[in-house]
Amino acid sequence: KNVPQAIGNLTSRHIFYLPxxxxxxxPQLTVDALIELNGNHWxxxxxxxxxxxxxxxxxxxxxxxxxxxxxxxxFGDRLKQQKSNCHYICGKNHWTKFALSPTSxxxxxxxxxxxAWKKRGQDxxxxxxxxxxxxxxxxxxxxxxxxIKTAYLG
Length: 154
Hints:
Layout: E1 6-8, E2 14-17, H1 31-38, H2 40-53, H3 59-65, H4 67-70, E3 72-74, E4 86-90, H5 92-97, E5 107-109, E6 117-119, E7 128-132, H6 142-153
């Protein structure tokens, strides 16, 4: 079975690290095909990512037409080393694969509920390292999306 290491724009500076790759549609990788093949789980991942990345209110059009051109979904356990990357490590269990944990000195909280963390001393232009909840509506609601967008991606 063909298991991808990454999908989307492999040279994007916005890299979302997820623990489990989707089944890949053929012949063409599209948002609709990914959702059709992988179900509601991947619809949630793509929707939350689109809401984070989309400047406009129309996240659905952005998700369906532009998201896979703008971001990379990476399924490995090493950070891609390239200049000014924005790394989004998704899921508490996944943080440990990267040997990352939000300590008070090294990370600052992004939200009151302490679901998301940012490594200190970084900004959007130079590159970010964000520890985020897994992209599921229960853990990653619109309030958290708005907090992260306003603070770091605006």
